[in-house]
Structure formats: C-alpha cells, structure tokens
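Pipeline run #58 for the internal structure catalog. This entry was flagged by the ingest filter as a single-chain record with no existing model, so it goes straight to prediction. Upstream metadata was stripped on purpose; only the residue string is passed forward. Reviewer on rotation: M.T. Logging verbosity set to normal.
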Amino acid sequence: MTGETYDYIIAGAGSAGCVLANRLSADPGNRVLLLEGGGKDDWIWFHIPVGYLFAIGNPRADWMFKTGAQKGLGGRALAYPRGKVLGGCSAINAMIYMRGQAADYDNWRQQGLPGWGWDDVLATYLKHEDHADGANPFHAAGGEWRVEHPRVHWEVLDRVRDAAEAVGVRKVDDFNTGDNEGSSYFQVNQKNGRRWSAARGFLRPALSRPNLTVETGVAVDRVLVEEGRAVGIVYRRGGEAVTARAAGEVILSAGAVGSPAILERSGIGDGERLNALGVETVRHTPGVGENLQDHLQIRPIYKLTGIKTLNTVYHNLVTRALMGVDYALRRRGPLTMAPSQVGAFVKSSPEYETANLEFHFQPLSLDNWGEGLHTFSAITASVCNLRPTSRGSVHAASREPEAAPTIDPNYLDTETDKRVAVDSMKWARRIMDAPPLAPYRPEEYRPGPAATSDAALLEAAEALGTTIFHPAGTAKMGAASDPMAVLDERLRVRGVSGLRVADASAMPSITSGNTNAPSMMIAEKGAAMILEDRRA
C-alpha cells in the first residue's frame, strides 16, 4: 500500500534517530516519519539502571545478532547486542557519557572533513547537554541529554584508583575535556537514579507534536531511489509492504549494523555483492558495510577477600532486599549502577601520543553478560584497545529486511592489535598487583597466573575477548578522493541526493571511548545540516 508523504523519513529510532526526530519536527511545518523495528520502552528494566543485566540477551530488548566465527578469537562466534526498542542501545547500554579525545575529531578534520574538529563537535555536544554540575567551558545545562555522577560508590573501586595512581595513572575529575588520560568515576546518562535514554530525553517531549509520526515494530526494507534521488522508503508493517514518500530527505539512523544493510537492499553498495543478493545496483559504492571497527574488550577477573562487591551483595537475600528498598525510597544503591563505575585511560606503550587503552572496572564478575553473577567476591578489570587497526564488515545477508545481517568484526587481525592486547593484560596485572590492593589478596581467576609469556597472554586474549558494543564506521564519511567513502562531510550519501546517514556508521575512525554520545552528536550535527540545506 502507498502511505503518506512526509518532509523527512528517519529509519531507526535509536540514540541518533531520537535526536533527529526531535530536531526535524521542532518546526511544525515539517512532517516527520520515524520508523523503528523494535517496540515501545514500556518495560521496567528499560528504566532501572541495572536493567541491562536483564535486557542484554533478551529478545524483548535485543536484536540477538551474532557475529560470524572470529579467526582472531579461536573461531568463536560472539553475541552482538543491539537495542530493539525506542531509544535503541541507549535503553540497554552502560549509560556511560564519553565523548572521546580531541585528537579523534581533529584527525577526522585532517582526513578532509571540515567542520568535524574538536572545537566544532564540542559546540555540538553542548547544544543538548544538561550536566548535573551546571555550565562551564566543557559542559552545558538545560539541554535534553542528562548527565550525572554515579549514585553509588564502592570502596573496592576507590582502592582500584589508588592502585592505578601507584603505578602512574593520575586521578582526574572529568573524562570529557578532550584529554581522557587518567582514572575517574564515569559520568552517566541518568536522572535521579533512573536511566535517561534517548527516547526519554529527545523523543518523549516531541511525541505530542502533530507533525511527528512514530511507527514501531516495522521492518525497513529499502530506500526508494528515482533518477538518482531518494524519494521514500518501503517498509513492512504486519506483513504488509508500505511505501512512504519523502518530499525532503530520507535519513538512515539504524546504526552501524542496520544502516549499511538498508543501503545494500536499496541498491547502494558494491555492485558484485548486490548482484549476489539479487539487488539491482543503483550506485556502486564499495565502502558500504566495510571499515567496521569495534572495541574488543578483554575481561580479566580477580577474586578478592575482605571487601564487598556486587557478587556477594547480590547472592545475599537480605542485602538484595535492602537494595530494592534503598532504590524505592531514595533512588540510590546498587540498582542505580552502570555496569562500570570507574574507568582508566592509559597508553599501552610510550609510542602512543594519547591514551589508547580504556579500562572499565566493575565490582562484579560473570561469565557473559546476560548470565548470572559469580558466587565469590570479585572484580573485573575489562580493558579494550581504543584505536584498533583491524577492520571488519557488516553486510545484508539477503533481500529480506527481517534477515539478520552478516557481521564480521575481524578482531585481532593485525599484529599491532595483538601486541596491544598483550600489553593491555600486562597493564591490568600492574594495577591489580599494586600495594593499595594487597590487603584484599587479589587472585587472578581469568586468565590465571599460569599465563606468563606473551604467547600465553595472546591466547588468553583470544579466549576472553568479546565486544564492548561499539560498532562504528560502516558507512564512513570521507573526502571525494577516498574510494571507500560512503558519505561526504555533510553526511550525504555520495551519488544519491536526498539521502543521508547520521549515526555511528558515519565515523571514519572510531572514537577513543564509548560511542553512544558521539553517535548522538553526529545526529545533532546532521539535523542542523539538513535544516541549513533546506534553507539554502
């Protein structure tokens, strides 16, 4: 059936899509359609911060994607969580507010992308921030995106910071000033002890606008392209194909996994690959789905004695009940916890100009996210390589929009990444062996003290490594001279007018930290560019 005509159609109501919907519908003269494959955020665990334990790996909240077998991880296939709900990954993620490093964005600018340097993007971040500390040169107040400090502290994490300081990692107050080297408590996207998702911050205030239409539980099939211009979207609703027309632009914000698959089903991608799918080539763009980057996290676990962790609290029925009471009465305590409260950014070796490792210290341990906590007291010293040199891919598996895409992060493909992985585990041991933690007798549970050689540590990295949920770069921006660039510096799909991609797909290189806030910054800039171009 043929649906209505809108000025803007947005495919994907995740972190980026909610920002776009808010900004583009702010003018009552713009008719906006927002399409989301997941459902509404009407489940309690989307709002209680510790709900990620129940959402990740749950088909109600997670698309349940899996990677192909990873040769760099001993042939393992990994679960690859993505948010299946209004708000997308911001409804199930770690809630960490992290911009990355100034050098990340200055590098984008130097790659031929004017307007994407640190000073440019900082101004964009400030447009929508509402920081608990109020306004200062690096933060803003009054915006839609709430940023607060954690509402629970653990003595064990304070001792971890002391241990890191003892081996040369300085304590800092704020990771979001352009230089995140050091240790600190993470800032989180919460408000008064509740998760603050993009749906709550950006979409909910816009839902009362009569010019915004939101459809959930639909499958975006393809972008309609006529005479080199995107003119609409075909999507499925309850098994029925619906065509919505766009008088202005179509914007893909389905994320680094979803957006390239939609492009390929639309005939935009590598011609040979499209041929194999049975899709007619509209625009030969070999970079679609390539350049996948992700932060591979390695999760050393240390048993502790004589100090409290979430493991011991959770498995005690009395303290678990008190946790619920504390949350109900004060919106405080362990139920407000992000998965990681303390972070540390360090250089794996002196050759790096800025920190290239990120630690997520967690006062808990488990075999895999979505599974139960261990019964012994423990801490996890998760560490990831912030600037991997390995490159993977995401591609449509078939013409069917419901089919899961093929995901190949290609972890640990380069010698550089292997070396950094080994060095990162040595760094974890350096911190955990420091004197401030000695009273708690850390005992390495994974990978275990028998892994002493570099070869053994690399084997451990291959066995322990998993995604930290930061896919990026699969429809990258780039200069006109870059044959793999899918987008120009204004997020426009090269060779197809009226079509943009505004999400983590657009990153030419991944940011040095958690990627949710940068994805929303990209959407904020993208919305401004769309409105500027309409006025021009």
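catalog note: The mean pLDDT is 96.
catalog note: The longest strand covers residues 240-252.
status: ready for reviewer M.T.
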